[in-house]
UniProtKB/TrEMBL annotation:
Membrane-crossing residue ranges in chain numbering: 57-78, 90-108, 120-142, 163-181, 193-210, 240-259, 279-297, 309-328, 334-362, 374-394, 400-424
PANTHER family: INNER MEMBRANE METABOLITE TRANSPORT PROTEIN YHJE, SHIKIMATE TRANSPORTER
InterPro entries: MFS, MFS_dom, MFS_trans_sf
Domain Major facilitator superfamily (MFS) profile as annotated: residue spans: 17-430
Keywords, sorted A to Z: Cell membrane, Membrane, Transmembrane, Transmembrane helix, Transport
Compartment(s) where it occurs, according to its Swiss-Prot or TrEMBL record: Cell membrane
Organism in which the protein naturally occurs: Microbacterium paludicola
Domain of life: Bacteria
Protein name per Swiss-Prot or TrEMBL: MFS family permease
UniProt key word tRNA processing: no
Membrane topology field: Multi-pass membrane protein
Major place of residence: membrane
Length: 441
């Protein structure tokens, strides 16, 4: 049987949208994760050279947080444009802003050359990164999920979530390569190369993203003149409760990533004496576990119900937290890898379906603003503060792993409350999702 041209076009459009969202988001997360890795390994020395090592590390993590402070602003700004004018063009702009900011970080002189101007400009460029990624995530999720076949939104949105491990893999590999340099070369110019390489990746991402078509659900809403004048007003007036629990539901998805990639990198290499290259390899291995598991998790969630799958995953993460940190505290690289890989299964399973889960909680007319506000407010309140608070928990606990474990369990508990809250307010159920799939079959 010959497939007609329109039918073939309809089949390709969801795949093209998912692929464009995946590639662009991978590049943006590469840029964003670069800063987190550098904050743990090199920024205290380059931009806070006169400070006590502990104070310098805290200052570096505070600079890291600047990106998260700007993320809600980017989410609201681009959410407004995306709900008013469409998803596609906003994603082109966010990718360009992120690429320019990351490239300029690679060119920025250190405090020895520019004094206080250096860390101030670093904060400004980090804020620009946050502004860009604040608008990126929501638009990419909607381009993928709204272009998907009915009943496949969670699976399509999962490919946006795959951008996070791919970005982390690219950032970690980049620092592994420059880490082969001697310490003097690494601190003077080697660490800059991954940031400068962003220019090439962004150019590739723009070529792919420009070919993606607009979200059909947005086009349908626009054709019906169902476009709000000020989306944030409608969100706060009629959907503030969903926004509140949505912020909490994103907690582990954002905070957990930076807990591992930034705080754990610092903790294991400074407190436990694990070699820097060894720890980067361990983190790289766990991210490969995430990348492999997330598509499987999305399929399982489609079968058993998204909300039910998320709750079970989060409860499992709580159950293994204390034994995991006990093993990590030994400082044995193999034990650290096995434990972090085990923790990655429930946490990345939850993260795989978070995007589609959250997108379905808001109506189309304010969806970009809704999911961006929830995700990026969480980034500011929880994600950006996670390395800083985890370091403080470690200091308050006298260097004991117990304080870190308690902090991590609290983070998961907050997330669990949010997931249950979104489920109750939006009416998620396995039965409803099953009916939707049957109707589309």
């Amino acid at each position: 049987m010959t497939v007609s041209a329109p039918a073939l076009h309809d089949e390709r459009k969801p795949r093209r949208a998912a692929f464009g969202s995946f590639v662009g988001t991978s590049i943006e997360w590469y840029d964003f994760y670069l800063f987190g890795t550098a904050a743990a390994l090199v920024l205290p020395t380059v931009f806070f050279p006169g400070a006590d090592p502990t104070i310098g590390l805290l200052a570096s993590f505070a600079t890291f947080w600047a990106g998260f402070l700007a993320r809600p602003l980017g989410g609201l700004f681009f959410g407004h444009i995306g709900d008013r004018l469409g998803r596609k063009n906003t994603l082109v702009v966010t990718l360009m802003i992120m690429g320019v900011a990351t490239f300029l970080i690679g060119l920025l002189p250190g405090a020895d050359a520019w004094g206080m101007a250096a860390p101030i400009l670093l904060i400004v460029l980090r804020a620009a990164q946050g502004f860009a990624v604040g608008g990126e995530w929501g638009g990419a999720v909607l381009m993928a999920s709204e272009s998907a076949q009915k009943g496949r939104g969670v699976r399509s949105a999962m490919w946006v979530q795959q951008g996070s491990p791919v970005g982390s893999i690219l950032a970690t590999v980049a620092f592994l390569l420059v880490g082969l340099l001697d310490q003097e070369a690494f601190l003077s110019w080697g660490w800059r190369l991954p940031f400068l390489a962003s220019a090439v990746l962004v150019a590739v991402g723009l070529l792919i993203r420009l070919k993606v078509e607009e979200s059909p659900e947005f086009e349908a809403a626009a054709s019906d003149a169902d476009v709000p004048r000020i989306p944030i007003n409608e969100l706060l007036r009629h959907h503030w409760g969903t926004l509140l629990v949505g912020v909490l539901a994103c907690g582990l998805g954002i905070g957990g990533a930076y807990f591992t990639s930034t705080f754990m990198l610092s903790y294991t290499t400074t407190q436990l004496g694990v070699d820097r290259q060894t720890m980067l390899m361990i983190l790289l291995g766990t991210v490969f576990v995430q990348f492999a598991w997330q598509p499987i998790a999305a399929r399982i969630a489609e079968r058993v119900g998204t909300a039910r799958f998320m709750v079970v995953s989060l409860v499992a993460a709580i159950a293994i937290a204390f034994p995991a940190f006990l093993v990590i505290s030994s400082g044995e690289p193999l034990g650290i890898f096995l434990v972090l890989a085990a923790v990655m299964i429930p946490t990345s399973g939850y993260y795989a379906v978070l995007a589609g889960f959250l997108a379905q909680a808001f109506p189309v007319r304010i969806r970009y603003t809704g999911i961006s506000a929830a995700y990026q407010l969480c980034a500011t309140l929880i994600g950006g503060t996670t390395p800083l608070l985890a370091q403080l928990a470690l200091n308050i606990g006298g260097g004991s792993w117990v304080g870190i474990a308690v902090f991590y369990v609290i983070l998961i508990g907050i997330t669990l409350i949010g997931v249950v809250g979104v489920t109750v307010r939006s009416g998620f159920s396995a039965a409803a999702e099953k009916r939707e799939r049957e109707v589309s079959a």
